[in-house]
Amino acid sequence: MSRRHLEGFMVHNIALEYKELKNFAAARAVFKANVTLFPDNPQAHHSYAKALAENKQSQRAIAQYQLAAQLAKQQSSQLLTQYRADFADYKTRPKP
Q1: Alpha carbon distances (Å) from 5 to 18, 36, 51, 63
Q2: Which of these CATH numbers, 1.20.272.10, 1.25.40.10, 3.40.50.720, 3.30.200.20, describes 3-92?
Q3: pLDDT 10s digits, 45-87
Q4: Average pLDDT of the chain, as a whole number
Q5: CA 45 to CA 66: how far, in whole Å?
Q6: 70: closest CA among 91, 92, 48, 41?
């Protein structure tokens, strides 16, 4: 495991901690920082998409879901199926 991978994992966990503490604005900010710091990480984009979706930012969420799936496909990630399923589920939900 590379240092870069570990750093991305640590930033992701900070965002999850904020989310657990119900500080959703801070969680979104850290998820956004994660995609900025690690733009090739599909998990970072997937998590940011979910945070945006929870905040009713549909267009931005869709873009992040699509990017997560695209990166996962390029990297032959085992999580590609999950990312696609989450995106498909999101697309079927009613939007405000």
Answers
A1: 20, 14, 21, 23
A2: 1.25.40.10
A3: 999 999 999 999 999 999 999 999 999 999 999 999 999 999 9
A4: 92
A5: 9
A6: 41
